[in-house]
């Protein structure tokens, strides 16, 4: 099986290098790695953030492990040349419509959470966020109203097929965990949300074993801080999911700890840490590679049928933390490479 490694820019190459070592240490016979440029690194070498050969590799591969993009040297470029277009382009081109973000607090890191340890320790959930629709992809523009004022607009819409396929991912994810699904919307004001809720309720008939609930997004934001332990799986749209998943990540400690998967209808996926390219610490060996290593574990489980190795990697991360491995974001002083070595040793 072929893994596409797309390190990107900033701390991306640093965290991918340690993750590759961990994957190689598993000695899985059938794994091949191929690396390609993406984001700012690709723009500087080829003039495009997602060059055709990178997209081609991503299409050929069984799974993609992505670092991060967001080189500030590219800030002044037109929108279509900016590094972030590479990740949006990959999601769209590969039909990766479901974003899974587990948020769980390693007990060793209870002090790192923004919440009180006794509240934070309850967190063990997955947010399933729709990734290809909603207000991000609707018609957008800038116009001048009759009285000469500038007006920006972004259309929010979902059709029922888009809702149904993400709802199914939500239910399937719940089936594999605690069998509780909370659908988050704003059905008291938005038509999009009314359709969302109707379709989720229809889909629930296929999953009689899952306990379904509904919550308005503003209440969900509050509940995530008040009592995060009540959630098992949340399914929600692109905009609400973007915000809630970042919020949930802070409940679970450092941004350097959290993995994610972006999946299509089959088994292909793109796996990446939830953080960006962290230009403020890039090139200094300060980045925490654990989010990327945990993303690789998700890749082994969902796309490569190596659930046992996935669990080995996760257990090794827990053991490394228990043994005191701490990068600066976790209050320690270990370098990116030392963190990688701590995981290798635990493995
Ligand atoms: P960021 O996630 O890159 O950094 C936020 C803060 O967290 C920084 O202080 C950074 O040093 C710290 N941080 C992030 N990852 C860390 C790690 N592994 N270990 C230790 N500390 C870590 O978000 P920011 O600063 O908003 O964005 C920087 C660039 O990254 C922007 O150009 C943004 O567009 C891009 N970005 C890219 C993403 C992607 O590639 N999927 C996702 C989010 C942002
Ligand atoms: Mg975000």
From TrEMBL:
<comment type="subunit">
    <text>Homodimer.</text>
</comment>
<feature type="binding site">
    <location>
        <position position="246"/>
    </location>
    <ligand>
        <name>Mg(2+)</name>
    </ligand>
</feature>
<keyword id="KW-0100">Branched-chain amino acid biosynthesis</keyword>
<feature type="binding site">
    <location>
        <position position="218"/>
    </location>
    <ligand>
        <name>Mg(2+)</name>
    </ligand>
</feature>
<keyword id="KW-0520">NAD</keyword>
<dbReference type="GO" id="GO:0051287">
    <property type="term" value="F:NAD binding"/>
</dbReference>
<feature type="binding site">
    <location>
        <position position="91"/>
    </location>
    <ligand>
        <name>substrate</name>
    </ligand>
</feature>
<feature type="site" description="Important for catalysis">
    <location>
        <position position="186"/>
    </location>
</feature>
<comment type="pathway">
    <text>Amino-acid biosynthesis; L-leucine biosynthesis; L-leucine from 3-methyl-2-oxobutanoate: step 3/4.</text>
</comment>
<keyword id="KW-0432">Leucine biosynthesis</keyword>
<comment type="similarity">
    <text>Belongs to the isocitrate and isopropylmalate dehydrogenases family. LeuB type 1 subfamily.</text>
</comment>
<dbReference type="GO" id="GO:0009098">
    <property type="term" value="P:L-leucine biosynthetic process"/>
</dbReference>
<feature type="binding site">
    <location>
        <position position="129"/>
    </location>
    <ligand>
        <name>substrate</name>
    </ligand>
</feature>
<comment type="function">
    <text>Catalyzes the oxidation of 3-carboxy-2-hydroxy-4-methylpentanoate (3-isopropylmalate) to 3-carboxy-4-methyl-2-oxopentanoate. The product decarboxylates to 4-methyl-2 oxopentanoate.</text>
</comment>
<keyword id="KW-0464">Manganese</keyword>
<keyword id="KW-0963">Cytoplasm</keyword>
<protein>
    <recommendedName>
        <fullName>3-isopropylmalate dehydrogenase</fullName>
        <ecNumber>1.1.1.85</ecNumber>
    </recommendedName>
</protein>
<feature type="binding site">
    <location>
        <position position="242"/>
    </location>
    <ligand>
        <name>Mg(2+)</name>
    </ligand>
</feature>
<keyword id="KW-0028">Amino-acid biosynthesis</keyword>
<feature type="binding site">
    <location>
        <begin position="276"/>
        <end position="288"/>
    </location>
    <ligand>
        <name>NAD(+)</name>
    </ligand>
</feature>
<feature type="binding site">
    <location>
        <position position="218"/>
    </location>
    <ligand>
        <name>substrate</name>
    </ligand>
</feature>
<dbReference type="Pfam" id="PF00180">
    <property type="entry name" value="Iso_dh"/>
</dbReference>
<feature type="domain" description="Isopropylmalate dehydrogenase-like">
    <location>
        <begin position="2"/>
        <end position="343"/>
    </location>
</feature>
<keyword id="KW-0460">Magnesium</keyword>
<keyword id="KW-0560">Oxidoreductase</keyword>
<dbReference type="InterPro" id="IPR004429">
    <property type="entry name" value="Isopropylmalate_DH"/>
</dbReference>
<keyword id="KW-0479">Metal-binding</keyword>
<feature type="binding site">
    <location>
        <position position="101"/>
    </location>
    <ligand>
        <name>substrate</name>
    </ligand>
</feature>
<feature type="site" description="Important for catalysis">
    <location>
        <position position="136"/>
    </location>
</feature>
<dbReference type="GO" id="GO:0005829">
    <property type="term" value="C:cytosol"/>
</dbReference>
<dbReference type="InterPro" id="IPR024084">
    <property type="entry name" value="IsoPropMal-DH-like_dom"/>
</dbReference>
<dbReference type="InterPro" id="IPR019818">
    <property type="entry name" value="IsoCit/isopropylmalate_DH_CS"/>
</dbReference>
<dbReference type="GO" id="GO:0000287">
    <property type="term" value="F:magnesium ion binding"/>
</dbReference>
<dbReference type="GO" id="GO:0003862">
    <property type="term" value="F:3-isopropylmalate dehydrogenase activity"/>
</dbReference>
């Amino acid at each position: 099986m072929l893994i596409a490694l797309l390190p990107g820019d900033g701390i991306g190459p640093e965290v991918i290098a340690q993750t590759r070592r961990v994957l190689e240490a598993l000695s899985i016979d059938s794994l091949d790695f191929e690396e390609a440029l993406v984001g700012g690194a690709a723009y500087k070498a080829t003039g495009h953030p997602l060059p055709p050969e990178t997209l081609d590799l991503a299409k050929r591969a069984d799974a993609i492990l992505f670092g991060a993009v967001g080189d500030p040297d590219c800030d002044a470029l037109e929108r279509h040349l900016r590094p972030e277009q590479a990740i949006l382009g990959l999601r769209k081109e590969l039909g990766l419509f479901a974003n899974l973000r587990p948020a769980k607090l390693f007990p060793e890191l209870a002090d790192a959470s923004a919440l009180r340890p006794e509240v934070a320790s309850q967190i063990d959930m997955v947010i399933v966020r729709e990734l290809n629709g909603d207000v991000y992809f609707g018609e957008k523009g800038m116009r001048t109203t009759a009285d000469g004022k500038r007006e920006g607009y972004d259309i929010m819409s979902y059709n029922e097929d888009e809702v149904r396929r993400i709802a199914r991912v939500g239910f399937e994810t719940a089936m594999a965990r605690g069998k509780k699904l909370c659908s988050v919307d704003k059905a008291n004001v938005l038509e999009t949300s009314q359709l969302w809720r109707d379709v989720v309720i229809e889909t629930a008939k296929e999953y009689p074993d899952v306990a379904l609930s509904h919550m308005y997004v503003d209440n969900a934001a509050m509940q995530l801080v008040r009592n995060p332990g009540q959630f098992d799986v949340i399914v929600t749209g692109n905009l609400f999911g973007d915000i809630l998943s970042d919020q949930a990540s802070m409940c679970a400690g450092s941004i350097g700890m959290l993995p994610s998967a972006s999946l299509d209808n089959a088994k292909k996926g793109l796996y990446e840490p939830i953080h960006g390219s962290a230009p403020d610490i890039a090139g200094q060996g300060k980045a925490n590679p654990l989010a990327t290593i945990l993303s690789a574990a998700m890749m082994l489980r969902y796309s490569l049928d190596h659930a046992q190795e996935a669990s080995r990697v996760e257990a090794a991360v827990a053991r490394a933390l228990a043994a005191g491995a701490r990068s600066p974001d976790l209050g320690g002083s270990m370098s990116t490479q030392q963190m990688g070595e701590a995981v290798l040793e635990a493995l």
